[in-house]
Design goal:
The structure is a single chain. The protein is an alpha/beta fold. It contains ten helices and 13 strands. The strands form five sheets. Strands 9-10-8-11 form a four-stranded mixed beta sheet. A three-stranded parallel beta sheet has the order 4-1-5, sandwiched between helices. A two-stranded antiparallel sheet has the order 2-3. Helix 2 crosses helix 8 and helix 4 crosses helix 5. It is globular. The chain starts with a strand and ends with a helix.
Amino acid sequence: NKVAFRVTTVLNPPFTKVKDGMELKENDSDLNEKLDGYAIDLLRELASESGFEFNLQLSKDSAYGSNFNNGSWNGMIGEVYRGEADLALADLTITSKRQEVVDFSFPFMETGVTLLIKRPPYYLHGKNSSRPPLLLYTVASVDDLPDQNEIEYGVVRGGSTFYFFKESDHPKFRKIGEYLVKHSQEMPRSNREGVERVKNANGTYAFFMESAALDYIVGKECDVMQLGKRVNSRYYGIAMPKNFEFKTMINTGLANLHERGLLQNLKEKWFPKPSKCEYKAIQPVYMRSALNLIMYDVQMREKHESQI
């Protein structure tokens, strides 16, 4: 008989999503048929390659895994640590803190911290303004964030990115971490919430998120973009209990999938290149030169008037 693993995950497209046309019910026991996404396809391929079965379950608190002062853990990491799940598979970052309580498989995807902003230009809207002025953006890179107070910013509350900044030895990053700790109760609880906040803030809010998730978002939506380069490099892996007897089997399966190109095929399937709009890393409106900003505004107004 094949071994059957209890696999916990969280909903976060494109890694894990509900199949189109299906709905989840409370305590749904049919998640194997209702969930889809990169992580689910990876699990199916791995199960076929390594010869195991699985039963999907959603993390009870929809969290990835943070530790508390009393030594307890929440999220998927907590469920694996307490023996409530055998594996955790999602966009789950491998960190040294998590490795103190669980083991991880070989990495299956590289990622890193990036900053999402609303795509410029931004205009100051007013009731009596037929020609709203162009707003100057005060942040040109991540390094500018801790030295200004016009742009608010955040991360998923209690996620690995939160702890990356909180525990960083880099002066700028540590300062960002102090801001995040101070405003921790205001932080979004999910990427989706953070993205919506960016879209609705007219350039006054930025959101740190993993580059893999950001690539998916900017490939679908034209009104947001990445600011600057990736802050760091890190990896996603499958979490499992310490000294898990099937760790070698899982790692061998992942290695085989990688060698046959299946991991790359899955990434191309679930992270398609942008098709709705052309994406550029940065636009002229972000240049520090005020003259560039003024000329951009003049050009836009002349174009508008020529069409009247």
